[in-house]
Amino acid sequence: MKTIALILFAATYILLLAYPKYRTYISLVSAALFVIIGILPFNKVLYSIDWNVVLMITGTMGIVNLFIESKMPALLADVIIDKVSSIKWAIISLAVFAGIVSAFIDNVATVLIVAPVAINIAKKLDISPVYIIISIAISSNLQGAATLVGDTTSLLLGGFAKMDFMDFFFFKGRPGLFWIVEFGAIATIIILIIFFRSYNQPIHLEEKQEVEDYFPTYLLISMVLLLIFASFIPNKPSITNGLICTTLLIVGLIKELIINKNKHAINNTLLQIDYETILLLMGLFVIIAGITEAGVINDISKIFLKVGGNNLFLIYTLIVWFSVIVSAFIDNIPYTATMLPVASMIAKSMNIEPYILYFGLLIGATLGGNLTPIGASANITGLGLLKREGYEVKARDFMKLSVPFTITAVVVGFILTWVTFT
């Protein structure tokens, strides 16, 4: 049964890599096969899915859609631009702004919020928007690891390691991933300053975006505050965070339908949620449970232990940089979902706490996606917007900025994570 599970798992990964447009269907079909063949007992299927993560993603995406529709993010971007004197600092400010926003909002949504502002600036100044959009995309992807709701990979870690919102800020009496990511982000600002050093054209904002409704902003702030509050509640139900996010989404929809009399609220919000990613995750949860049941996860962990020679620093280094390389070419969601139980098994075999390996995995997997144009959804989205504007970006042009940016962020994260958690 283990051989069949391994073949099915390998085939799933190959198909995910070869046919990214159909990754949701591949994941669901593979999950169904794991159950039908008998690798994962049917009575364990529902328990293998992390419903807290599923509900958090659904609620957060819906609230973010309402937030975008309110025009508040566009106003914030305009306010920032209005405070700077040159295009260089406008680009850096937009990149930093995108990073901050993406710590709390999905990376793709962040790019969709900020990129149009950058494109508009580029048109006014008659300059290419290519590297402006690239800087926004990679900055937003970088900050995804900063908080529990910043990226799907963070949600996966939170669900697997039973981490709450505040654990990303302070964990077991030590600075959390948030601060490690922020130091990495600060280091990348130096890369941006050097790269855009010749962009000294003056800039002036003629008019600012008007906000149509402040209620979604209050919803988003409430979500963050309630997640923080829930972090301090002991022995709470496992789906508490998910219920917070989905309940606030329902409140927002009721307000839109009844008070704003917006008949299109359901279409504009619920139908904009990325259900494909949610279904992909549900399928992956079942697949990972299946290969764990079959003993494949244990075998993969033994390979890392054999190569690492039971040396924690060497194994940590392997996990971080292997994650960077892998995530540069394949989606980091299935990779992270696979490697979390592997990291857990390695730590158990070494009789150590697993957190140093979890955090190293997240640093490598999340930041590694910035290396190439196809390594992260935010990058693909940014390049899609550029293509719509008539700009075809080659991989080598993308990597002129992405490689030094990514290496800088990962090196800082690699060092700080090791120093902080060992």
TrEMBL record:
Residues 13-364 form the Citrate transporter-like domain. InterPro entries: Arsenical_pump_ArsB (IPR000802), Cit_transptr-like_dom (IPR004680), Diverse_Ion_Transporter (IPR051475). Coiled coil: none annotated. The chain crosses the membrane at residues 26-42, 49-68, 88-118, 130-157, 177-196, 217-233, 239-258, 278-297, 313-334, 355-381, 401-421. One of its GO terms (molecular function) is arsenite transmembrane transporter activity. Its main location: membrane. Keywords: Cell membrane, Membrane, Transmembrane, Transmembrane helix, Transport. It is a multi-pass membrane protein. It comes from the Bacteria. GO terms for cellular component: plasma membrane. It is found in: Cell membrane. Belongs to the CitM (TC 2.A.11) transporter family. This is Citrate transporter. It comes from Caloramator mitchellensis.
